[in-house]
């Protein structure tokens, strides 16, 4: 690397260009196609539903933790936690086991090493969604570690649904088992999407086995819930859990309505806190479950009283460093019996999560999620049909939904699918999938068209934005337009008449010469039938079935798929994305340099020599370019079809590997005769001329 940079004077002057990408299109052309959309947080999420009938209840979010589903949860990644821990995305601190989510503390030294705890720069900024820092203030994404101000000594976990799901008003119930371990702090809360400092506390509990202040027992049995209206003012109530030996599984719930917020344990009748809903909590909120360690908070549900066993003081500048220095005071309450690692009893265990909506509820499923390989917008619909006709047309439609907002998204997609299959007139429709992102919908369908595609009528709930089509088929099987067929017939007649006149002279001259010799006279009728049969044998025309059989020879060759894949970068991709010119020598060279292609070509030539029709035999020895055109189709640019109900008339774009009847112009006759083979035309002309001359002079 150093040598390369030191020689920059030899290459820097050549770095004057840039790689520019004008357009990218990806088409789904198989029932097995799959796709996903990834990106950053979507500030305008999709709305699934905003209202229910009176007295109706509906489960709108749930997780029973068969796996850690990143479609639902986004790990928080930050050092700004308010405690002595940093939240990380690591399966040692957040994982699923036995249908339970574990939020598990761990020593930072096990991740960073002892040296890094007190030296160097700790960077948590990240580069992509799963690793990106989520809270940057107060050195939340980067920290300079020193012996006095060490790195946060504990790694822990906090999961949220801000990127995946939020709701306003409803019932939230979470089944959980509390952890035990000194100075642990469990938390489950609802946080407003608008960034308010208010939140609903479903659960807050310390992990100490023995802890008291001058009023209450503050060990793990005391759990808090209620409402905070800012960072310094909370109205929470507490309740002691009935068990005394070890924490048991409990159901922590909240009924959140526009009028009041009620928290309870195990049963809605066992109320912990009940209070009016403040204005700051009359907005969408997301769920956060977390496990913290220590801290200097003075809030009733979070503070740790000053006791002789407390390994830090709130007033010191770096309490987390003191906490870790005095770890002999708390490590035994965390460690396994062998004293080697953190025991599982220190983990907050979440068994299930359920959110139920009622008539005043509103909720949103957000488009993008934590891990980049998961997204709610991936809606690939498998088709019941797997067979696509050889002459099928593939069309893609993009439309904007303009209907009522209260209709569920899945119902909108079902309506759009039905609309797409009727908008493209034809039969044998195969729908590859339908996707809805915000108000935009897209679907791709393969079908056999019954009429030319001139315009698409808008649906009552969908405004068509763009339609693109890709015709499929074999170039040699295409039909000719009327004007080209008329031109061909004129050529046939004119050339036939001229050859008939020539034959008139030659046949009469030949008969006169034979009549001067002492041969047995041959009746003219026998000469007529002999010439007719000979001409028919020599110039028998190829049927469409024979043509297709020759093409099947190609596609049946094991090397054909390898050959076609090797030549795809030009003849298919370019024509699909840009319209594409006819094959050039660049593609010819690519074909010629591919062993699989030359093998297929040789096989095809050998098969042609066995053919018994003249048109196919005339293809023996055709150049590679003509062979590519015959078997793969010659890309050609066609004019956009008019679209009367769209502002931009160029929104329907046709990419045709083989020219359709309406797109062939007189200037393309050379290309047509290339595929049809000019030798075949001459065979028809000779056959017609000789037959005509024989009829004239034979009777």
UniProtKB/TrEMBL annotation:
Gene Ontology terms: biological process: carbohydrate metabolic process
GH16 domain span: 25-361
Gene Ontology MF, one: hydrolase activity, hydrolyzing O-glycosyl compounds
Domain of life: Eukaryota
Entry annotated with the keyword Metal-binding: no
Alphabetical list of InterPro entries matching this protein: Beta-glucanase-like, ConA-like_dom_sf, Glycosyl_Hydrlase_16, WW_dom
Bilayer-spanning residue ranges: 485-507, 519-540
Claim: Transmembrane helix is one of the keywords in the record: yes
Keywords: Membrane, Transmembrane, Transmembrane helix
Entry's family note: Belongs to the glycosyl hydrolase 16 family.
Full protein name: Beta-1,3-glucan-binding protein-like
